[in-house]
Amino acid sequence: MSSDVRRNALLLAGSLVCNSGMFQLAAALSSLTLVAVTGITGILGLGPAIFLAAGGLSAGPAGRLMDRVGRMPVIRGAFLAGAIGCGTVAGGCELVSGAVVALGLALVGGAASIVLLARAAAAEMFAPARRARGMSFVLFAAVSGAIWGPVLFGPLFAHRSMMADGLVWPWLLGIPFMVAGFAVSSFVAPDPKEIAARYPAERAGEIAPLGRILRRPGVPTALIAAVASFAVMAGVMNLAGYMAVGRGHHEGDVFTMISLHIVGMYGLVLVVGDLIDRFGRRLALSGGLALMAVSNAALAWLVGVWGMSIALLGLGLGWNFSYVAATTQLVSLTSPSERGRLVGFSDLLSSLVAASIALLGGLVYTASGAAVLSLCAAALAALPAVWLAARFRYNPPPADAPSAAFS
Length: 407
Fold this sequence. Notes:
mainly alpha, 18 helices, globular, Growth Hormone, Chain: A, about 400 residues
């Protein structure tokens, strides 16, 4: 690993440490905030839906812009937009304005989705045979979000009202996290896209349009897995806070659950990256989705704080396997000037489907309760897992061709 790759990887990891603070805040509060401001419990899925839909609509254009101007200018801009978004949500809580809160959630969601594109920027800096490892190294930094919850956010909520005025200061805490992320990301140089172009194995020649890229062998399967894993995970995660409060748990307990969920998402990502590089990506995709299905089903019966926390831990770990494998494959099948638009398109679909799940999930929860919602989410993860497993043909990937096991 060259010195500039090592340095950039550490800086990207540091920026995701900052992003993880805002991410946990939004995951725990997005479903609660809009309900607290409007007083309408039937729209509990609308806050997460706005957050996720805005992220999806931002990721596609951001990916294409990254292909033109580089990765880091876009990521830095996203951190600034996230800071503005947190302030806007806080302002909406102070003004008791649902429209202002919705605008702020859209800004925060768009920023979070664009910053997450840093995972592809991290992967492309490493040699093709080690990209899952490279991505996992940077994503591991996001496990720090599990620390922010019990250390900072949990105590903050211990004696705070869940009315609109009680949510102003919690959302303002997101601003310094985003400003710090901008500062750290400003030191990343050279741009990861420039580093990726050094590898002779990168696809050369004409830059293909998105339609042709989507028809390449391996791309549709990876895309389906990426969309399914992210959408189910994000949809359930953003409703988990309201589910917990509905089961009689304290608002501060939500951060314990989300913290363990983030540990599942990122805590073992270094080990996961090595396992994916060693055993191939399709096995990680189907196995990860299967674990997500089991974890979602468990939420129907595990109603205590620790029971829900363990189920959310499993949900995060399943996402870890499937999403890292899918993104690594998408990166491996594109050139530096193509992958921004493909990963951005993947994030667009993932976030829009996740927004739909959150919105419909809120209606299902209101009408039928947490058990039905959990079982529906389990089915949404199980179906693609079974489809991938049925198509699985295991071929151990050679060291110079990690995508060989993904056919």
